[in-house]
Amino acid sequence: MLEDILSSLNSLIPTVAPVSKLPAESLPIPYICAILGGLILSRFTGSLGNVTLPFNISAMFIGSMLSNWLLQGVQLPLDPGLQRPLFVTLLGMTVVSVIVMLFVQKENRHA
């Protein structure tokens, strides 16, 4: 049942001709990491009010899926079932979290 839900969510992700969609077995990794990353990032971006947690989770999810989508053709010496999606997801989330923290820091300076 969970794999069916993740597969239906995977069908919403746009594809480009040479790049296929993420395999269904690696989909829980970006979802779980985005939620955990959003929770951790909320500790550093608490100035956005009630939208902090949904914004951070959305940003982490977009970063993780975008990095998996962009780096799908890159061959890494990692296990393609767990290690590679986890590494690429954390890479994308790190880039997005730095951007979010810089954005929120600028907002705090003007206040």
Describe it:
With 111 residues, the protein is mainly α. The chain has one domain (28-110). Helix content is 64%, strand content 0%. It has 4 helices and no strands. It is globular, with a radius of gyration of 15 Å. The termini are far apart.
Key words describing this protein structure:
111 residues, mainly alpha, globular
Compile the SSE list and pairings:
Blueprint lengths: L1 H9 L17 H15 L9 H19 L12 H28 L1
Helix pairs in contact: 2-3, 2-4, 3-4
- What are the secondary-structure elements, in order, as H or E? HHHH
Shape: globular
In terms of quaternary structure, the protein is single chain
Poorly predicted sequence stretches spanning 5 or more consecutive residues: none
Structural class: mainly alpha
Report the sheet with the most strands, covering strand number, pairing sense and barrel closure.
none
Distance between the termini: 47 Å
Strand content: under 5%
Mean pLDDT, all residues: 76
Helix content: 55-70%
